[in-house]
Design goal:
2 domains, 217 residues, 6 helices, seven-stranded mixed β-sheet, alpha/beta, Rossmann fold, Alpha-Beta Plaits
Length: 217
């Protein structure tokens, strides 16, 4: 089973968590796109969706799935999204697609966060994937220096602007021993919008597509 097949089977398994009348938070990226494609088959069952990026909103709308504003809804029962890395503790690195801030907002607003991924994303320790940090542009150099102090090697994601009008620093070679503490530490730096660590509010369920089918963590 190819990685794309693994992503698709995990995404299709997440459909089982969607209840009639739900408003569904939807993530961004290749795995989330498989979930959107599966969601169109039950779009009459749900009341609408909350998109974590403009790209996701466009894909949802192309399938005739209603997209709502988070400020307009009272609660969000479920959020489904992929990850760039995930641990058995359900701590994640996200943001490879650049939507980490809106993804974190939707995750925080949701009652249940279902993470979907292929088996290559499961790791013992986070950090092999470069850690994305969304930064207000004027703070780029300052935050880059702070990342060096933490032991990382920051690189500007060239030619990319987030949906919020900001830049992303991808931080390589971080040894992330305590993701909760590191998330707090980086988020407190002035100029950081958010960091792509999802540990304070990690996933509630990880559905991992593997050669042997979907495994639940």
């Amino acid at each position: 089973m190819s990685p794309n097949d693994q992503k698709r089977t995990a995404a299709e398994a997440a459909i089982e968590y969607v209840q009639s009348g739900d408003i569904v938070g939807v993530g961004t990226g290749s795995t989330a796109n498989y979930f959107i494609d599966a969601l169109k088959e039950i779009k009459g069952k749900i009341d609408g969706t909350i998109a974590s990026s403009e790209a996701t909103a466009d894909r949802l709308k192309s399938h005739g799935i209603p997209v709502m504003n988070l400020s307009e809804v009272g609660g969000l029962p479920i959020y489904v999204d992929g990850a760039d890395e995930a641990t058995h503790n359900l701590h994640l690195i996200k943001g490879g697609g650049g939507a980490l801030t809106r993804e974190k907002i939707v995750a925080h607003a949701s009652e249940k966060f279902i993470c979907i991924a292929d088996q290559s994303k499961l790791v013992d320790r986070l950090g092999a994937f470069p850690l994305p940090v969304e930064v207000i542009p004027m703070a780029q150099s300052m935050i880059a220096r702070e990342m060096v102090k933490l032991g990382g090697q920051p690189e500007l994601r060239t030619g990319f602007t987030t949906d919020n009008g900001n830049i992303i620093l991808d931080v390589y070679n971080l040894d992330i021993q305590n993701p909760v503490e590191l998330e707090r530490q980086i988020n407190q730096l002035p100029g950081v919008v958010t960091v792509g660590l999802f540990a304070i509010r990690g996933a509630d369920v990880l559905l991992l597509g593997t050669q042997d089918g979907v495994k639940k963590y």
